[in-house]
Amino acid sequence: MVKVDGMAGTPTTAEHLRAALDGPWRAIREQARTEFADKQFAGDPNLDLPEARARVLEQMRTIAALGYPERGFRVENGGTGDPGGAVTGLEMLAYADLSLWVKSGVQWGLFGGAVENLGTERHRGYLKELINLDLLGCFAMTESGHGSDVADLETTATYDPATEEFVINTPTPSARKDYIGGAAEHARVAAVFAQLNTLGEGKGVHCFLVPLRDDEGNDLPGITTSDDGRKGGLPGVDNGRITFDQVRIPRENLLNRYADVAPDGTYSSEIENPSRRFFTTLGTLVRGRVSVGGAASAGARVALSIAVRYALARRQFADPDTGTETLLLDYRSHQRRLLPLVAKSFALAFAQNDLVVRMDAIQTGRETDPHAQRSLEKRAAGLKVAQTRHASRAIAEAREACGGAGYLTENRIVTLKGDTDVFTTFEGDNVVLTQLVAKEILSGYAEEVRDLDALGWVRFAATSAADVVRKRSGVRQLIQTLRDRGDETVDEADLGKRSVQLQLFADREDYLLRTAAHRLRARAEETTPFEAFNNAQDHILAAGAAHIDRLVLEAFVDGIADIDDPDARELAETVCDLYVYSTLEENLSWYLMHKFLSVERAKAVRRGVNELVERLRPDALTLVEAMGVPESMLRAEMLTDASVYKRA
Amino acid sequence: MVKVDGMAGTPTTAEHLRAALDGPWRAIREQARTEFADKQFAGDPNLDLPEARARVLEQMRTIAALGYPERGFRVENGGTGDPGGAVTGLEMLAYADLSLWVKSGVQWGLFGGAVENLGTERHRGYLKELINLDLLGCFAMTESGHGSDVADLETTATYDPATEEFVINTPTPSARKDYIGGAAEHARVAAVFAQLNTLGEGKGVHCFLVPLRDDEGNDLPGITTSDDGRKGGLPGVDNGRITFDQVRIPRENLLNRYADVAPDGTYSSEIENPSRRFFTTLGTLVRGRVSVGGAASAGARVALSIAVRYALARRQFADPDTGTETLLLDYRSHQRRLLPLVAKSFALAFAQNDLVVRMDAIQTGRETDPHAQRSLEKRAAGLKVAQTRHASRAIAEAREACGGAGYLTENRIVTLKGDTDVFTTFEGDNVVLTQLVAKEILSGYAEEVRDLDALGWVRFAATSAADVVRKRSGVRQLIQTLRDRGDETVDEADLGKRSVQLQLFADREDYLLRTAAHRLRARAEETTPFEAFNNAQDHILAAGAAHIDRLVLEAFVDGIADIDDPDARELAETVCDLYVYSTLEENLSWYLMHKFLSVERAKAVRRGVNELVERLRPDALTLVEAMGVPESMLRAEMLTDASVYKRA
């Protein structure tokens, strides 16, 4: 029996699985499970807004004292240089309270990350203060008029050589900074993204440190902050608005890692291409997207843990034969509702661990491949989409699966629902991010053909089209077609092979990608680029989604490979099958329309989901325990007072 | 030009459409638009719980003074005998505030409905008082341990002939009444559903009037009420719990329309079959389900009106050719996200009007067909599912489509989201209700064969199987298959024909129904009835859903037939096409797997959705205006202060 680190005695299957899902920063997760289970970190939905905000700030001071944030900073900046540990440790706050997680993320991740990664030696002094919360900051990127389109932000930072200052200004109503966590109340300084102008020339978006408030919390001259007020959730986060009326800041407040302005106004940058400079700047902030995805998944795990445990206690309707009331989780519809979401939670946990490992390797300098950063950004965007979408769906299903009890705040799920709702929006709208992923893989595809002339394109299109045809008329498809026409027994076992499953996921991605590329190409000759793109937008988004699904499956498969315990591994394999079958089922019309699955095999997929949820039903509690949310952190009243919904 | 009632001048296309969607109680809707637009009825999310509850109660007094509730009661009971007008008028409150709508529904619909429909002459005195709010009541059906399974409620009402009283008691923790609107604070009396026991015999669930509080609001002896506290929404509704400790009430407090207990304890009922008695009792309460569906759809219309209007003002990302930023609604993905939901809102509005007409005909005695009541209950259950599911989805999409702005309470959508979240649960969990619909149509199907012996079943199965095969191998299918194999041009126009569309919806329902019946039959011989049912549960639920989709489409088609204005009618036809195509698209894998659509036609469906959203794009504002939520009732700050998200 393989020993699971840090466990006393012989580990259970659930513990083996939990160890696998915990990933490389398992020790930090275990520490956090102990520390954050303390009641002081639990959300209190009965507080009013000012109380909720004050409480979160107090909680953050304790988090700082426990040493969580300093992992996120380099040793020379007063940290311990463990970015993976920082993201993982703070993610565990999501089990306690998402307001606390968001506000911590704003202070140490976004604001701290901007100062550390976009600043230089001269800004180092801020870091120690922001780690220990002597300096509270905010991350003022989004404006009321521009969120996803960061390059077109309207706030200006105009250099005045006479005084060696930048003048920060809000030129229009839509240039107002908005939804900024910390801006309503606590932040003393903001990392402001603004269009840099010097010597009459626009140089694009750069980041500046702008003091907002004095020690008493009053707006400084030229600064007007206001409060976004109540939101759909996250009451402990003081989101607000900022406008700047010709606010002067020293030249040195430009975070000048990638570009600088000399005292005389001369602009310089080691990155000549402005677009590359912009994307390099944003790329250093990838940790935010990595973190949001992780916290969304953590929230989903809490909700699913509550709903599955409830379904293992609550009974409804007596079996006419036995007279015994049936447990909710013994209904097929309930199994189908919850267990595929548990399976997806497993898949995403492995995918998130893999993502954090990649991020950590790059940010600690162990990974030096120049393509790795761009690949990380694509993957972080894709997993942010997958995980936040999953969280919205899983938490909504969990709420409904718990009926009226699920609607009471004392049972926690509605708070998770409200808090995570905006995760599909922040750190990038999910549609825009899916498009970003798709564009990235499309441009990879186009690179093969970048320099082709018109004739080359024609030849290329012909070849690729043939390639596509090959897929549809290849040997496998032929067998398939033959089978469909006759009454031969279909070999359903085939679909159970991991290699076939991976191929099916890859086929969908490849086919969507190639056909999207061709569609764009074909349209581009008749219409404007925007119209060509817009006409194919649903196709392009589908390609992005297919890419994400494949990455997640690959991570799941890799994750299983690391499980040594045979029982745990076998269970994980079944969970992986359920992830595969339910993902295939969600995309069944596509597979049928493009003849990657025959009708008989499609029916086998649907049947397979039923069989797999039935097979996993006895292990439901094991799976919940493996997801790793300690029972003491669920904080759902109905789980502690089970007699009220269990018949005596 | 056909004149639209009550409109000055020549009506616009939007006004014609609105008149059609308003339906038979248009005058009441118009009156409500004027009256409820008053700021006093708007929700105020900044109130704390006690304030929110007190405010709703005050608002209800004004609603009562305006005469809305009395429409719901018969003339002899002090009402005006207009049940359709009552449901429609109160539904309009959903545009103002859903807490107000729910609490009004509890008082006048559930509590008032129980007294009027389950009580007799001797209870008439309560009605006048509850209409004018001198008597505040609640509807104490659900218990912590039993919600969907009303027949197994645990609260007891034991008759004591010695004192001619019933003794109401809560025998177990799970028998606690829970989630009861009004129980936490305002209700003075409860309509309590409990197991009637007399002379040592259980007679099933009956309804009793039980006083809860004295005039100072203190619990009466034996009564313990408590507060459910915060919920995912509906802050103005004081949901709570009630336990009864041997509470004695007079014999006359039994609502005795369908059954009575004589002073000596003798039980009598005009309905001998206890199960039929129970379902008759519940059937009289159908108005609750009718109302919830309507209010859910109203909430969806508000959210979609806000999101579409925002998408017609907010721009993001410049078109590289023109430099102009693109309106959100000009993106294909945004059109695809919002416009099919608008189309579904149209469909459901027509279906709801049709449902209310049927309810009104029965409840005013104009409809006397004995099957009509049962058919109404099935339809009400189905449309409750369809509309509450639609609301959850539409409001979630609307939130996401408005990005960060959508998350601010000042823009209303998150409040709608939280308030409607529980609509999928109350008045019957959606899974349970879908099952009820499916069982009802299954039993209709089984009636044809109810008395068959074993041989008869075999013969029946053989015939029906042949029938199913006919569908798959019929002429149309044959042509289809031929087309698929060759390169002939597929006649896509076919799918645009309403008759073909209706047939496709009906085919899906028929096929799912027949195959579910056969599956149940086949399984029943190998296993227990519960297992047979449970194994086919996903299949049965799919049959229920298909039935609902067909009803909705038929109502849409009938609704269009009443539009005289040619432009309005043409636009409605296109909206109906979008409803059809997007519903087909959602069920595409089913149509493909069961060969009702060929691959080529399936692709035409997908393409069709794209073409239809593009065609409807220029009419987006017209469609929103037609949905009939007055601009003054949207109350989204971002729509009144557009400069902050529109580039100057």
Describe the structure.
2 copies of one chain form a homodimer. Chain A is α+β, with helices and mostly antiparallel strands and 648 residues long. Chain A folds into 3 domains: 15-131, Orthogonal Bundle (Butyryl-Coa Dehydrogenase, subunit A, domain 1); 137-275, Butyryl-CoA Dehydrogenase, subunit A, domain 2 (Beta Barrel); 288-472 and 494-632, Butyryl-CoA Dehydrogenase, subunit A, domain 3. In chain A, 56% of the residues lie in helices and 10% in strands. In chain A, the strands form 4 sheets. In chain A, strands 1, 2, 3, 5, 6 and 9 form a 6-stranded mixed β-sheet that branches. A 3-stranded antiparallel β-sheet of chain A has the order 4-8-7. The first copy, chain A, is globular, with a radius of gyration of 26 Å. Chains A and B meet through strand 12, helix 10, helix 11, helix 12 and helix 13 of A and strand 12, helix 10, helix 11, helix 12 and helix 13 of B.
